[in-house]
Amino acid sequence: MKLCVLQGTFNPIHNAHISAANFVSDKFDKIIFIPAANPPHKNCDPNLSQHRFNMVKLAVQGQFDVSDIEYKRGGKSYTYLTICELYKKYDVEEKICFIIGTDAFKKIETWYKTDELKKLVKFLVFVREDKFDISEYDILKSKGYDFEFQNMPYEDISSTELRKEIKQGADISRYVPPQVEDYIRKNELYKD
Q: The domain containing residue 95 runs over which residues?
């Protein structure tokens, strides 16, 4: 099986997440969205954890799989541990592919067990900034990180900015699937 994962905080999930998965979907037998129950690199309100998971399920609507693997495991949601579990669960051809934005990929060397992780996955890197210099990633290639850049046009959406806009009462309909917008409104998320 050719397997690809998109792991993240999804606080909230937005259209760029879905676009990235769609962009590579024809190359894989399965794409799994994995919401981080307890993200190690971000301060996330623990009360939003289940809401984030629910929003991802609503956003992908059966088009992709959604895993609660990190919710069941408990503790910090370390990518390395999740990837190890996925190799036990699935008969994977080659390496698991891992969708990641340039913003997160720049910090990959700070991730838990990064030297072990880089042997287990191939990173599919999506540009997340206006000014982008591919040469600044050469050092990661020389350190053994397996990755390729995806040629999808940059979408200027970030969950951080979305949360600010929601707090200010702005219209977010062009950034999130309608069912996610409804969920945010009904549950009065990101108001504080």
A: 3-157
Rg, C-alpha atoms of the chain: 16
Domain total for the chain? 1
pLDDT in tens, 68-92: 999 999 899 999 999 999 999 999 9
* Tokens found for residue 140: 């990661």
Note the pTM of the prediction, 2 decimals. Answer: 0.95
CA torsion angle for 191, 79, 155, 33 (degrees, to 10)? Answer: -80
How far apart are alpha carbons 71 and 83 in whole angstroms? 14
Residue-level pLDDT at 133: 82
At 7, which CATH number? 3.40.50.620
Q: Which of 161, 157, 160 is nearest to 177 (CA)?
A: 157
